[in-house]
Amino acid sequence: MRGMGDEARSLAESVLVRDRAAREAAVAAHQQALHRFPELAFEEHRTADYVEQALRSLGLEPKRGVVGTGLIVELPAAGTGPTVLVRADMDGLPIEEHAGHDPRSEHAGRMHACGHDGHMAIVLGIAHAVCRSGLEQALPGRLLLLFQPAEEGGAASPSGAQRIVASGLLDQERVDYVLGLHLWSYLPLGQVIIPDGTVMASSDEFRIVLRGGGGHAAVPHQASDVVLAASELVVTLQSIVAREVDPVRPAVVSVGTLHAGTAPNVLPERAELTGTLRAPDAPTRELLRRRVAEIARAVAGTRGLTVDVELGLGYPPTVNDAQVAARVRDAVRPVFGEGVLSGPPTMASEDFACYLEQRPGAFCLLGMQDPAAGAIHAHHSPQFVIAPRALPLGVELLLRGALALIEPGAGPIEGDARER
């Protein structure tokens, strides 16, 4: 796959320059409106109503009911080139928002604390840019916009992306490439990370329950000490990353909870630990999962305890196609210049990974840290806010990247979906 050509760059400039002020005002209004009514996974009914109305106001005909509350729409004037799917996630989080925010969530205990309201506004901005461009020429290929429910999942149940992949939608819509972004509060405004490989880590969860005979703390030799075994287990699990993973590859084993006992002078019969595993690739992921179970059983065996180990299967690593990533980086340099970076990756996780397992594509991290706007707080924090200036940059990033992938004559890359 060659670099972005003059035709695609010219098309991007033509689309993005027209109606810019109105588009940027609309995108800001969309984000503020969506921020007021965050909804949890597969409950995004009011959100879907809003998105549908916004798309229909542009003359589009979105399809509702994608794995429940999702929507998909094809932009008009599609040519015969490749099909690019651009995704926005829709769900909020069970977090009570900081009282001083304006706008602020109207749903108690619910908040858009990860930026999904911004992602939806950005993708609505793409629809606005194309539909209001006034261009007579057709897009060189098909551009699909997917508003996906339930990104904020985990190992407990399938996420929106997992269900969409299982539904066969990528095949039904003849998708060739996938493209997405995440507003990123850990990166300065105006920088963008588009790695050639791993963008985000896998995310799995574990639950370990140790059981033994309880007793009086004054006579420990007549009981089993599950607290001691749990403590040993927490420490020993850290040896996986320290001594079994290649030092140049990132990996995480973190114990998040440890519950045991009800009184200081009682040795309990049960201790429970839960935690998370993060890995940049499939082999490392499998190593972590296997060794957590083996170590838990070994520690329990040395203490004469029984043990139950549950390993929840969460999101796989988010891994870009190197050729697609290079093409998108080239496409967005006119806007971001030296701020276009190829790394480093992060150990957070994303269900966009499920699309990248099925199709070549790229996932981008768009910096939005802006102290002047108060955008300095971490994702999933009650104080999290989106930097307004990041929203038009997101439109530029995704639309330029998408147009580069459907450029006439770009040709397929190795393993392209059209060759399957």
Can you describe what's shown?
- By secondary structure, the chain is an alpha/beta fold.
- It folds into 2 domains: 6-199 and 318-419, Aminopeptidase, CATH 3.40.630; 203-315, Alpha-Beta Plaits, CATH 3.30.70.360.
- 34% of the residues lie in helices and 22% in strands.
- It contains 11 helices and 16 strands.
- The chain has helices at residues 6-17, 20-35, 45-56, 116-131, 160-167, 169-172, 226-244, 282-302, 322-336, 353-356, 390-405, and strands at residues 63-66, 70-74, 83-89, 142-148, 177-188, 192-193, 198-200, 203-211, 215-216, 252-260, 266-267, 270-278, 306-315, 318-319, 340-341, 361-369.
- It has an 8-stranded mixed sheet with strand order 1-2-4-3-5-16-6-15, with helices on both faces.
- The longest helix is centred in the C-terminal third of the chain and has 21 residues, at 282-302.
- The chain is elongated, with a radius of gyration of 24 Å.
- The two termini are 17 Å apart.
- 50% of the residues are buried.
Taken from the alpha-carbon principal axes, the silhouette is: elongated
- The total number of structural domains is 2
- Strand content range: 15-25%
CATH superfamily of the largest domain, by name, is Zn peptidases
Main sheet summary: 8 strands, mixed
What structural category do the secondary elements indicate? alpha/beta
Uncertain residue ranges: 415-420
Q: What is the overall pLDDT average?
A: 93
CATH architecture of the largest domain: 3-Layer(aba) Sandwich
Oligomeric state as shown: single chain
Return the CATH topology of the largest domain: Aminopeptidase
Q: Taking strands numbered 1, 2, ... along the chain, how are they ordered across the largest sheet?
A: 1-2-4-3-5-16-6-15
